[in-house]
Structures are given as C-alpha cells and as structure tokens.
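Appendix C reproduces, verbatim, an entry submitted by the partner laboratory led by Prof. M.T., so that reviewers can inspect both the input and the predicted structure.
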Amino acid sequence: MDWCPRVDIGEADGTFLIKAEIPGVKKEDVKVSVQNGVLTLQGERTDEDSEQGLHFHRVERFHGSFSRSFTLPPSVDPNQVKAAFNNGILTISLAKVAGSESVAQQVPVE
C-alpha cells in the first residue's frame, strides 16, 4: 500500500524548510532529489513485524513506498538543498537565491 508522509513547510532567514514525518523508515531507504524545479521525496517503510510471524488484529500504520513532490519557487537555489534525517523526521533546507526576497504588495479588488 502506498502512503503519503505529512509535511510542514516554513520559511526563515532566507531559507525554506520542509519537515516530513517518516517514522519507521531507515535513512538508507530515503531519497531526496531536485530536477527541473521539482523537489521529490521518496522512500519505503517495510512491514518488519509480519516477517517475524506476528498475527495482527488491527493494522493502522501504513507500509510500502511513498513519494511526495513539490514545485519549487524560482527564488530557491537548486544547488543549495540540504537534507538531514533524525528520529523519524526528514528536514530539507532550501536556500533562497540572494536578493530574491519577495515583497508583499496590496492588490486592489475590483
């Protein structure tokens, strides 16, 4: 069964941050890539318990492969992407291109 990890997306100090919850996934089973302005997170969580011969009465955790893709804004430098994995949380840091700060502007409603 495919599943989709939940993510938080934020912005601070010239950097976008994406945090994905992927508990039970091994670091070596996670792949992060950037291609043509799209950031993709991929991986797989295996059902280790069934391999141990356990019989379940209820299963609520998802297992199998996952993939999430995000279109990056032009202000992201695709060569300045960093990923770290700690305690089931994948944190991706996306540096903005220097001088690309967006300025909020009022849009008139007609």
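The helical segments are 48-51. Additional entries are available on request from the coordinating office.
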